[in-house]
Amino acid sequence: MVLGTAQWDGQPSTTFRARLDHAHSLYEQGYAQFIVLTGGVAPGDVYSEADVGHSYLQNRGVPPENLLSVPIGLNSRESLEAAAEQLIARDQRSVILVSDPFHMFRVKQIAGNLDLSAKGSPTTTSPIRPGTPAEQHYVIREVFAYVNYLFFDS
Asked: In terms of DSSP H, where are the helices of 4-151?
């Protein structure tokens, strides 16, 4: 399951592309039978993150029947809830979550609370590099997002 992030006019951002490429690699290595793409349409956008990811991976050779697009959610919790609902309906509860390293702790917690058995596989090619100001920004953002999740969304 790929957690969506920014897309630019129907093309994945560099961060999103890193996640998609990592999921493609896991799929090619046989770790997953299909790939779930998450993320809705952000305000001002035309395309959903999930559908952009679906198109990108289909263009990389993943058959459409092995892709599940869940274009719902404006944040990780909403996207995971929508994807979990579809997976549980298919009697599928085991997932590999693909995102950036700073994002893994929170999304694994959310997935577990949604009765999914989640393993994390963070991308190593994200432009958000360890030790950079960008990573520090996102780590701080994640701390606040996790506290918000604990007290208001769980």
From this structure: 14-28, 49-59, 76-89, 104-113, 133-148
Write the burial class of residue 132 (CB in 10 Å: 0-12 exposed, 13-18 middle, 19+ buried).
exposed
pTM of the predicted model, to two decimals?
Answer: 0.89
In a domain, 37, yes or no: yes
CA-CA distance, 60 to 104, in Å (whole number)?
A: 25
Domain of 28, in residue numbers = 7-127
- The whole-number pLDDT of residue 154 equals 53
Contact predicate 75/5, CB 8 Å: no
Q: Are strands 7-8 and 67-70 parallel, antiparallel or unpaired?
A: unpaired
Q: Please report which helix (H) or strand (E) contains residue 95, including its range.
A: strand 94-97
Each residue of 57-79: pLDDT tens digit?
999 999 999 999 999 999 999 99
CATH of residue 23's domain is 3.40.50.620
